[in-house]
Amino acid sequence: MTWQTEYLDRFYDPARGFQNGTAEFHELCREAIPRGGKILEIGAGPSNRTSRFLATLGEVHGLDPDPAVRDNDALASAVVLEGGRYPFPDASFDGCVSNYCIEHIPDPAAHLAEVGRVLRPGGAYVLRTPNRWHYVSLFSSLTPHWVHDLLANRLRNIGAEGHEPYPTVYAMNTREAVLRLAARAGLAVEALRLVEKEPSYGMSSRVLFLTFMAYERAVNATPHAAFLRSNIFAVLRRPS
User: Fold this and answer.
1) pTM higher than 0.90 for the full model?
2) Out of 3.40.50.150, 3.90.1560.10, 3.40.250.10, 2.30.40.10, which CATH number does the structure's domain 3-237 have?
3) Is pLDDT of 13 > 70?
4) Residues of 184-220 as b/e, b for ≥16 C-beta within 10 angstroms?
5) 3-class SS at 106?
């Protein structure tokens, strides 16, 4: 057993009620998107846990500027995005999902306009994205991309199988920005919460893990510190 597994079992044990961030995000998708529907995963990328989970809910179609989306084994179809308009007719999907995608989009207003266009009336857009005010996002914003290439996978203890980090812009990565841009796009904010989970960027050393765990305990101890939590989970719905 590695020390990472030992620490996760000790401090973040599902048997004692802990739910990891991906499981919580998947549950949010399950609650918001009707079973058997047609789903667009924006930023689907290559094969991954979220695409495979979404395929248990309905027919999943992937959209991504990275041609690696064609290798995603959970998708009914994969489209490489070229330009700003999504290559689907109006009202094509019962749900849209993006998992760690928003932070890479330089024009989120145009993105949400396209999401609203391809969603059917009553359809939901479920997203998970980093919070701009978390220490990881702040560090990312203040350093050049070559630093991210050097450190991101190492800090998370991700081996050669992980893809290199994509450039980030954080243009819709605060609670206020989500509320403002959703309103501009005519999407109703059904759910919006900030979430801090296990210290995924502390997997390279015990000292970092315990330091970041102390941070997690502190920001989860009071709602007044919610604005410092790592991720934004949101459900935006097109009015019926």
Assistant:
1) yes
2) 3.40.50.150
3) yes
4) ebebeeeeeebbbbbbbbbbbeeeebeebbebbeebe
5) coil
